Structure formats: C-alpha cells, structure tokens
Amino acid sequence: xxxxxxxxxxxxxxxxxxxxxxxxxxxxxxxxxxxxxxxxxxxxxxxxxxxxxxxxxxxxxxxxxxxxxxxxxxxxxxxxxxxx
Length: 84
Hints:
Elements: H1 5-68, H2 75-82
C-alpha cells in the first residue's frame, strides 16, 4: 500500500482541484446568468412603464376632452378618439 500512497495522494488532490474548479465555474456562470436576467428584466420593466405612461396620458387627455364637452361627443372629440 505504501508504494501507491504518493500516487493516491496526487490523484486525490487532482480530483479535489477539479471539483473546486468546476464548482467555482458553475457559481460564476450562475451569477452571470442572474445578472443578465436582472438587466433584461429592468429593460422590459422600463419599456412597459413607458408604454403604460403613454396610454395613461392618452386616457387622461380623452377624459379632459370628454369633461370639457360635458359628456356630449363633439366632432373634435370623435377625431381625437379615432386617432388612438
């Protein structure tokens, strides 16, 4: 058994280093993937917020026009409404 001890120790060290390297690489990949996901999610949230803000502005404008005309559709209101 003693003649195999150095080879066994070296083999165990190589396996331990390979395991540690693989674990570190996987951790790095996971962090990178999470970062990419978070960045993409931020972009989509910003785009969605911009779109919703635009739609809200249109609805507020239509409400203002409707209020100005006392709830009676006017030609100006109809033309405004059909553009959106």
